[in-house]
Specification:
Layout lengths: L4 E5 L3 H12 L4 E2 L8 E4 L10 E6 L13 E3 L3 H10 L3 E8 L5 E6 L5 E6 L2
Length: 122
Amino acid sequence: MAVGWFEIYVQDMDRATEFYQTVFNVTLEDVSDVPDESHTRSFPMVEGADGANGALVKSDEIGSAQGGTIVYFEVEDCAVEEGRALAAGGTVIDPKKSIGPYGFMSICQDTEGNLFGLHSMV
């Protein structure tokens, strides 16, 4: 079964938004329906592209946690986003490494304590 959507729970929406916008060089869109409840900012959606879309979510009921589900983002070169993650205040947990014919992967930690993966073919 393919992933249809992902959510990354955060403690500080502005800090997390700045982090992910810096790492992936994108702009997240505010898609919150109810301002006083959970706050949601969506990653850019690419019509017709493979993969799942997702969002950062700030909620009183669910917080960020290290060791939870790891979402892997497809990127051109893991090393580039690793560098951006460090510059944006994150940590590289498992630096870029070969996974044989499947390319390369690395695991980083965001400013909220969440782990996320990077995958590239170079």
